[in-house]
Amino acid sequence: MKLGLKQDEVRVVEYTQEWNEEFIRVKNELVENTNLAENRIEHIGSTAIKGMSAKPILDIAVGVDDLGQVDKELLQAFQKAGFLRLKVERPGEIVLAKFTDDTYQEKTHFIHLVEYRKEVWDKLIFFRDYLNADEAARTQYLAIKVAYLESASTGINAYTDSKEAFVRDIDSKRFSS
Fold first, then answer.
1. Please, how many CA atoms are within 13 Å of residue 150, restricted to the half-sphere of its CB?
2. Closest by Cα among 35, 36, 58, 34 to 46
3. Which has the closest alpha carbon to 177: 106, 122, 107, 114?
4. pLDDT in tens, 23-38
5. HSE on the CB side for 161, CA within 13 Å?
6. Residue partners of 84: CB distance under 8 A and separation at least 6
7. Mean pLDDT of 69-93
């Protein structure tokens, strides 16, 4: 299993069980370095959806009580585990990444640091669980990814935008179940 995408590269590879094994390895490393409880570290994104082809980057949700209280000590603990804070501005989220080497050209893992059991956390976990439980949704999601890749191999923002309506539709089901 090889993880990693260069900046703005978009590539999808076949599902592998090794993604889950890598998540467990990283989760243990995070628990050891940060002292966060295991239940606050979840595998999310397409690599967490059984059988789903995905970008070869592992996404991890890490829940904290209050994003406003994230301190230098916690960020240094993530750094000990190989994660650096990115200058990405997302509401309700701090994004960190792990890279293949110190050129910082190829990302292999993302941490989405969010407030535990609040809006962003719930959205991320619900999406993963819904797709794991619904084969038709998985098929539809993969078709959206493939359609984008038929016309491009770069443009991570456009790739994400191409999936946005689907993601919003799935999220709307959180309130109807």
1. 7
2. 58
3. 122
4. 999 999 999 999 899 9
5. 5
6. 78, 96, 97, 98, 99, 104
7. 94
Cβ neighbourhood burial of 54 (10 Å; 0-12, 13-18, 19+):
buried
The arithmetic mean of pLDDT across residues 57-72, rounded, is: 96
pLDDT digits (tens, 9 = 90+) for 101-141: 999 999 999 999 999 999 999 999 999 999 999 999 999 99
Say which residue the tokens 């038929």 belong to: 150
13-33 in b/e form (b: 16+ CB < 10 A) is: eebeeebeebbeebbeebeeb
Task: Dig out the tokens for 53 from the structure.
Answer: 């082809």
Q: How far apart (Å, rounded) are the C-alpha atoms in residues 44 and 58? A: 8
